[in-house]
Amino acid sequence: MDASLLSTRPNMPPITRSDKFKLTVVVLYHWMVMCLFTLEGRVVNAKPDFSYEPQPYLSIKEGSSVSMACLLNKEAADSFKVVWTKDSYYIENQNRFSVSKVNDRQYTLQIDPVKREDEGIYKCVGNKENGTLYDTIFTSGCQLLVIKIPGPQYPEVCLSQTRYNIGQNIIAYCISERVDTPSNLTWVNSPDVGIIEPIENSSYVGVKIRFKAVEKVNQTTILCKMTVDGVAVPRFKRSMPIVVNPILQKVVTSFESASISAVVLTNSLYSRVPVIEDTIPSNADGIEYMSLIKMFTCLLVFSIL
């Protein structure tokens, strides 16, 4: 070897007795920690005891089903009893949760249907009695994420009021709750002249339609359709019947008001007739004269109206 290369090599300091002592202390410390965990009967790293673990992440639509599984290795299968936990709480067979032992090594958890409150971290946990203590093994957590869809009560359809007069604006609303999966809301049989506008806030999304009240829309309904990504069957909701007051009702009402006014005015005028009659002689000519006055009074009343 070239001597020049040897001359450029840095000089390594010799290992002293103090360095050897420090190294010995570090090794003894780690050995003592391992002994303490063994005496307590607790296994920190569970992966060597499970041949198969649930997936780290699962994303499931609300209303569908999900299944998780774990598999013990052969050495642990004879001594450990496995349970499932959600956020460190034990899960039992109840309602929508089904906990099963497929064989001596395989365990499954099924949730059907999945709801929003099922989001959380799921684990397989194995326990083994060791005298007065328990050995515990566990899988890594499976983070379950629930993709929320609108509840079964949606869409909701409502009208701005219960009755309309001819020419008034009819406003109908179709709304759905705001969730992870967007809703597509459309009017199926809305009037062609209607003005459609989107509406939304922090809790709801929807569409509204505005059109004029005419006789042909009386007692009709309008239909709203909601589709959600991934939901095969769309949902429909129909409005209450639209009630439009007929135009003849307004005319009849006006005529009745005019008739009442005419009767009141006529009675008022007739109340003055006896004063005139006192000055008229009681003969046939006087009677005819009074008839003419009454006719003239009636014509005057109707001309005023």
Question: Summary?
Answer:
The protein is α+β, with helices and mostly antiparallel strands and 305 residues long. 28% of the residues lie in helices and 34% in strands.
Walk me through the structure.
There is one protein chain. The protein is α+β, with helices and mostly antiparallel strands and 305 residues long. 28% of the residues lie in helices and 34% in strands. It contains 6 helices and 19 strands. It has helices at residues 3-8, 17-40, 74-77, 247-270, 273-277, 284-304, and strands spanning 50-52, 57-61, 66-72, 81-86, 89-90, 97-101, 106-111, 120-130, 133-138, 142-147, 156-159, 163-164, 169-177, 183-187, 195-200, 204-212, 223-228, 235-238, 243-244. The strands form 5 sheets. Strands 2, 4, 5, 8, 9 and 10 form a 6-stranded mixed sheet that branches. A 4-stranded antiparallel sheet has the order 1-3-7-6. A hairpin with a 2-residue loop joins strand 8 and strand 9. Helix 4 packs antiparallel against helix 6. Residues 1-12, 36-46, 262-266 and 268-287 have low confidence and may be disordered.
Order of helices and strands: HHEEEHEEEEEEEEEEEEEEEEHHH
Oligomeric state, counting identical vs distinct chains: single chain
Shape summary: rod-shaped
Distance between the ends: 133 Å
Largest sheet: 6 strands, mixed
Low-confidence stretches: 1-12, 36-46, 262-266, 268-287
Radius of gyration: 45 Å
Mean pLDDT: 77
Tally of individual helices: 6
> Quick one: how many beta strands?
19
Output the structural class.
alpha+beta
Strand fraction: 25-35%
